[in-house]
Structures are given as C-alpha cells and as structure tokens.
Amino acid sequence: LMNIMEPSYMVPCRKTITTRIQAIYNKKVNYIKNKCMNVNSVALSTDCWTSRTIDSYITITGHFIIDCWQLKYFNICTQEITHSHTSDNLLDTIQSVISEWELNNKVSGISHDNAANITNIVKIMFLNGIISNPCAAHTLQLCIKKALDIQIFSTFIKQASNIVSAFKHSYKRSYALENVLEQLGKPKLTVIQRCPTRWNLTMFMLERLLEIRQGIVTTIMADRMHFTRQQAQKLEFIEEDWDNCNILCNLLKPIHLATTVLCADKKVTISLIRPIIHSLIFKHLKINENDNDLVTNFKTSVSQKFS
To answer: Count of CB atoms within 10 A of residue 147's CB?
Structure first.
C-alpha cells in the first residue's frame, strides 16, 4: 500500500517501530515521575472495565496540584487483568503500580466506584492513611438506574427503545423518516438508542423522540411501505407515553447537569459534592402537592437510594 501511495518512503521494520514507541513511553514516564517528585500528595482514581472484546482492564489515574495551583492528571496505568477481580488481586495490582511510580507515602486518597471488591481494598489501604472517596457521580448513576427500573418508567422506556430500534435497524425506514422530516420543515435528526448502563443516553433518546415526534408518528402510522398495520400497532406511542417522556426528561435534566459538573476532570470537584447533592435532594427531588404518581415515584426512589 505504501509503495503505491509513496514509493520513495521506506517503511520501518517492526523492531524499529517497537523501539521508537518504547523510547517515547520511557520519556513520558520519566516526565511524569519528575512531576510527582515535586509534589507532596497525589490522589488516585481507579476503575475496572471491560473492552468490546470482553477483555478486563484496570485504569489508574494520578491527580495532583503543582506550584502554580494548576491541577494535573496522568494515566499511570491501563493494564489487562487476567486473574479474577478479587480484593486481594486488585490490591496487589494497585500497590504494584504505586511502587512502580514511586508514590509510596504520597497517595492521599483513592476515588472509586461502589463495587464491593474495590471498596474492600480502600478500607484496607485506609490503615495506611489513604482516604476512600466513593465516586459521587457513580452513586448518582445507581440511584437513577434503580428509579428507571420501576415498572411505570421501564414500560414506556422499553417501548421508546423499540421505536428507535425499528429505525436504527433499517436504513429504508431511516431514509423515510428523513424525508418526512424534510417535508415537515423539521431538522433531519436521527434517533438515538439508549444504553442500559448509562441513564443519560436514555434521556437523550427520549429528548430526540420528542424533537422528531411528528416525523416519527407520521412515518409509523401513515407509511405502509415501511410499516405494516400490525407493526404500527405494536410501536404505537399513546399521548400519555409522550407526556411521560416529557416529564421524565424534565426530571433528568438537572441531574444530568449535576453529573456533568461532578465529572469535570480539569477542576477540583470534591468541594461541590455536598452543595450539589443537597440541592438535588431538598429542592429538585422535593415532593410537591401537584406532583403526579410518576414524578412522586421517581423523586422518592432516587432520594431513598441516595440517603
């Protein structure tokens, strides 16, 4: 391929490329270590995750403040976990990374999710003066997920997801929707599918359906070339469902904003946790007399879980 694109270019061999990558890596490691040598305290954040190929990894990020009060952070570890995710195994991995980066006696705290294995690890490390900082955004994620699992929500969310799938899995239907939106003088927006592990995508899905509601209804109910009468009946979204979508989006928007603020990676956010959570619980999630059952159930579920 390179001979066709640039015949005069000599492609480096595998060994040369590997050597150059290793040299760049070593240079970056030395740079980060020199930065860490000049600070008294480093906070870590860690998470275990799974790739699309079902390989398990652990990522550890170091956070510290330099002399000019500027927040710096570096990914100091992303490595595959080939053993089981027990507390002992993960503890060995984290301690090994701390030693490798010469951070012994410098780690002030670790931010982590609410998984039992990582929580147990930090409890053990607390004996060495390392503070546990459970991720507020992850805790909020669990609260919202539990609320959305309530049947009154899950029923119309599933139906909304079915509508999205009907267009996502057929380019002909997507093209038909695009034409209808153009005829209606609406922006030619595409549907968004939700992800069960990310509630904000559920909100984005519902918001998008509300934006292109007229096009969705027209395409499903009137276009017999792409939707049979039986298919249209199965995908029918009654007026109450559309109202519920709007209500749920209004409930989720402030929480999405709070999550966005808490997840900022270039600003210190730990001082914002208490005021944000207090505002959510005692203002946004406060039950009012005119709240219907849908709103009351949501507010009650999230507040109880967070408490």
So the answer is: 23
Pairing of strands 56-65, 131-134: unpaired
| pLDDT, tens only, 54-92 | 889 999 999 998 888 888 889 999 999 888 888 888 889
The model's pTM: 0.79
- Token readout for 132 is 């546990």
For residue 198, the model assigns a pLDDT of 85
3-state secondary structure 6-30: CCCCCCCCHHHHHHHHHHHHHHHHH
pLDDT tens, position by position, 87-116? 888 889 999 999 999 898 899 999 998 888
d(CA 73, CA 63): 4
